[in-house]
Amino acid sequence: MDNPKILSALSYFSVLFAPFLLPIIVYFISQDSNVKYHAKKSLISHIIPVILLVILFISVFSSFTPLTLGFNDQPSLWIAIGPLLLIATYMLVYVIVMIWNIVQGIKVLR
Hints:
Blueprint: H1 3-13, H2 21-29, H3 33-62, H4 77-109
Helix pairs in contact: 1-3, 1-4, 2-3, 3-4
């Protein structure tokens, strides 16, 4: 094994222990363009769940405003089920991103 492959794979595997920190450090410290490519790619894949989490928080907290009450001042169905669907979607996306990062890290090591 050579160091560029290990650094590239660690950028992907860092989703398990240091999602943002390690790819950023590898990107700025490494001189190899291939390692920089993989560090940037892994960092982007680590940011995707964070963006989805921000959207989840905004939508959940905005669903509790008084303007979202339905007919007869009863909460609409979206208020009851919507946050659960968004949380399930976030969990699914997070698992998919984690599996993708592990697969990419294994591919780089080959």
